[in-house]
Amino acid sequence: xxxxxxxxxxxxxxxxxxxxxxxxxxxxxxxxxxxxxxxxxxxxxxxxxxxxxxxxxxxxxxxxxxxxxxxxxxxxxxxxxxxxxxxxxxxxxxxxxxxxxxxxxxxxxxxxxxxxxxxxxxxxxxxx
Length: 128
Hints:
Elements: E1 26-30, E2 40-47, E3 55-58, E4 64-77, E5 80-84, E6 89-92, E7 98-114, E8 121-124
Antiparallel strand pairs: 1-2, 2-7, 3-8, 4-5, 4-6, 4-7
């Protein structure tokens, strides 16, 4: 019998950042599959101290909420830059281009939102 829930530690989810050439800058753990989530996207990000990964992204459909769980940093949303601290939550509409920069202690955050397959567009070198 299948249980009506899934329990896991996000550190046990495969880190996808190296496959994108970003392993030096961050960890990216796309957890929806491991959680067996059908309609919810869940991603854990750990950005290394003082690093600004070399890309941004946006969506056509997916609204996302980012929750800072540790560290500090900044988030660029189109032309605006926000300072981030633990327990900050930021809701982002789909069409807004977003990127992160970690502070001196790094930045750990979780992104959640409705899952829409193939609904992402990346921009490399966007925040220079």
